[in-house]
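Quick one - inputs below.
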Amino acid sequence: MTLLSEKYRLSRSGVDFIDEAQLHGLLESPADAGKVREIIAKSMAKRPLAVEETAALLAATAPEQIEEIFAAARQLKRDVYGNRIVLFAPLYIGNECTNDCHYCAFRRSNREQIRRTLDEEDIRRQVLALEGKGHKRLILVFGEHPDYDARFMAECVRHVYSIHSGRGEIRRVNLNAAPLDHEGYATVKAANIGTYQIFQETYHHETYRKVHPPNTRKGDYLWRLDGVARAMEAECDDVGIGALFGLYDWRFEVLSLVTHALHLQKHYGVGPHTISFPRLRPAQGVHLDETYLVSDDDFKRLVAILRLSAPYTGLICTAREPPQLRREVMAFGVSQIDAGSRVELGGYTEAGDAQVVEREQFELGDIRSLDETMRELLVDGYIPSFCTSCYRLGRTGEQFMEFAIPGFIQNLCTPNALTTLMEYLIDYASPETRAAGERAIEIEIGKLPDGARKQQLLDRLNRIRNGERDLYV
Ligand code: SAM
Ligand code: SF4
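Output:
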């Protein structure tokens, strides 16, 4: 046991549940087309897959089997999420960091990086810029540093919620930050955070040790692995997990993510709200070892297999990926994307159109504006959503799953997606995007059976046209 784990209290499920020998053994399983079909049938019935079943999908490499997996993922995505895509933006608060993660430009040994922590006024300017574009959901991102303790994060969250301009407001603030102790999670929860995201980066112990020096806080594998379980115990039951793809064998990371999700489900009765699968990007002074970089084709497989393995877990594809690939994987089960993102400190008002390498964590692959991204989604038949209603009505964790599993989600989410889309179209969209959005809303309404639910939605859309805002079910 390491020093940190002795000093701090782990969760009651706080053991290292990543059994590498078992996972590597599973990755040796031979491809079996019959088994793949059976497993696909199970996920189409919306039942989460066991790790062994996920491994069988990973073993399928014949083009026709891969096609079957893609087709099933597309279908499952439609069945569970409809055509909604939730949109958010990251807001980097500070890039001070005491860790030395080899892949990250914020690592402490990177002397070229310009260090900065946004003050209240800086945050206000960034949030006003984001609100001015139409954003309603943010994720605040922090380096790991004593200055960025739970109290500081909670203050930032409260500050962001308090910033309003005209019709602009942020209705949900998520966090991506270092793991906390139970007390820390309770502190940020009290500020009304949405999801607390922690990526394990790599679940492979030796690789973890290699890229996270042991004399750093992040060097403690178990403290991090246990991070979201502690969050759940402190009533932050809405958590996100993820792996940084490109550090180790992507198939091992997929099995580990599924293991992690099942571990949370077993011990807390609810899995993670989201899984993220960022791929390594070029970053200031970072030498990318190419051994495990994930190709676009494998990336598509990993998204589709995660979709099938965890039918009710949101999948997040970030702007690290280039536009065309994001467009493709959207169909395989992605449910959330960021748009109009900047990862430089102060990037929403200060950076202009170019990325500024000295002030950012890594290079983005997609720097299109929110409006352009919205338009493409609409033209492709998606309904971009800024909905925050589940979180605001307390439909999270176990309770959220009750709604999600019997399929109520479409009855709640689609109407809420359409009303938040309507707000966006009226308040922020360019004329072209507005036209595409109005058409999309009409099509969606046309799909609804006549009845009270449809009438309610039509009424709400009219009220929004007449100036009301924030109407949700
Ligand atoms: N400092 C906290 C931590 O490490 O958990 C907060 C988040 S960090 C600023 C956000 C995430 O960015 C990391 O968890 C990592 O997965 C990802 N990241 C770091 N360097 C990256 C790179 N070069 N390319 C892509 N993603 C990267
Ligand atoms: Fe710091 Fe997070 Fe970057 Fe690691 S990934 S150097 S902890 S900001």
